[in-house]
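Project standup — Tuesday

K.O.: blocked on the structure for the chain from last sprint. Re-posting the sequence here as requested.
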Amino acid sequence: EMQRSLVGSEMCIRDRDMTVAEFIVNKIVEYGVTDVFGIPGGVVLDFLYTIDGRDGINAHLSYNEQAAAYEACGYAQCNHSLGVAYATRGPGVTNLITGIADAYSDSIPVVFITAHADKVVENLTRFDKDQELNIVDMVKNITKYAVAIDDIETVQFEIDQALKLAMEGRKGPVLLDISSKLWNKELVDHNFSESNKKIIELENNDKIILEIANEIKAANRPLMLIGDGIQQTGTQRYIKEFSEKTNMPIVSSRGAQDVAADCENYFGYIGSHGIRYANFIFEKSDMILALGNRMSFPIESESYRKTMNGKKVIRVDIDEKELQRTVGNESKKKIDLKIVLPDLTKNSIGIQCERQWLEICRCLKQELAEEDNNIVVSNLVNIFRKLKGDEILVSDVGNHEFWVSRGYELAQISNRILYSKTFGTLGNAVGKAIGAYYREKKRVVCFIGDQGIQLNIQELQLIAQERIPIAIVIINNNSSGMIMDRERQKYGEHLVHTTQESGYGAPDFKMIADAYRIEYLKATQITKKETDIIVNQKQPILLELMIDKDMKLEPNLPKGETMQKMIPNLEHDRFEMLNKL
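H.V.: unblocked you, prediction finished:
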């Protein structure tokens, strides 16, 4: 006998004798999940075997649960669809936590599935049962929803609730810790209901949109500041269309540089290590329209106060928690981007920015486009300009991350690029590259440092055994470059654990590649030979790009200076000419 039910907005048909494991697997398949990442353990075997027997979904063996979390994050981050990682109890679960925090920080919708054999009992003993612990309390502040499920009567509601919350509003991770005793129990009584369906009521939308339009009209030099919220809401095309219709220039946060990269009115990313012409443009604007961007500036810094002095800020966000932050001289608008952007675009005729302002932005870009190049960036540009356009790019954390961002901007490409933006998780990139490949089935180029790759180097086994076409570019300066720079700023040449002389080390990466049966290349300069191999690869490749350990991360913004006053300094007369535009 079949039972027809309405869950959210989707019609589903389910068997009466469906088990809990089958129910959850069917649910994640309904959400479009085709690949799941994790490591088997006793309490999750029934879940794994259910996946194994189900058409349309595959489980991949990770080699550390932290990497499994990153793989699920990369899978979800490509297009903000649902990702799934699983882990066994105890250390398996705790290994997920860094990846859960990464997903929460960057609003990535991932379902983390764990299990327990015995219900955790609150008492005076440190551990009541081996490997059992209260994971829900551990992660409740870095998830949208976390729950332990011990009763068959609550299974359906809790799973439905978690999946919906992961995907609605500001997306993010959820955790389900399911009793292993429930996996094979039958869900006979399907009491489906829409009573728990959450409806976001947004009042006075027309009034808010009119206010935004009028505030833009009142500005002389308005500027859009966009973030990853544009990707999350799927409103990229409206950003470009609105900019083109109104002549309104766009800048972004660094992690969102791929959102409008193919729009001619996009002028790069801002920040203390931002693109120089983007920082100039931000400084010269008199009104900031923040869309999908948290504006997570250090608002107490002298540089921020100077830069924002006299600027009007319009902050558009659906998340009331984000709007609780005060950034100064702001107008807060609680409204969904999926509502405001189409409407603004449709009615953009009355919003026309001065053409001269757009020409100033273009002049700054033309004058400063090549200003902060270096040998590393030039090598990366050589790779980027040879890409075919559909490759997914992933970058790890470190100095190389900023060189990758700069090379991306100078190459004027628009490929999807994934970062660990807010949490800055060193060692995330290999896992995210794996997840991104399984989501999109496209070639992936992964950029990582000689230190970062050592954190999850074991995932080369998954890449090798499944012959995933990922090109891993290790940017090797034989040091922990970002921390070394900070040590030098604070302690001079007294370095600790950041160079080979002070305790840092890296393995022979050719021997590593050979051990994992992965093709290996080594270069000090990227030539046509290397780029041809990278862009045409159908098998995994590891390219080691050797660079000087003393290569500086420039430009940067000194403390207390306004955003356009980056170092190295421009020649005085040239700076004054550009600053007066």
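K.O.: great, moving the ticket to review. The first helix runs from residue 20 to 30. Residues 277 and 367 are 8 Å apart (CA to CA).
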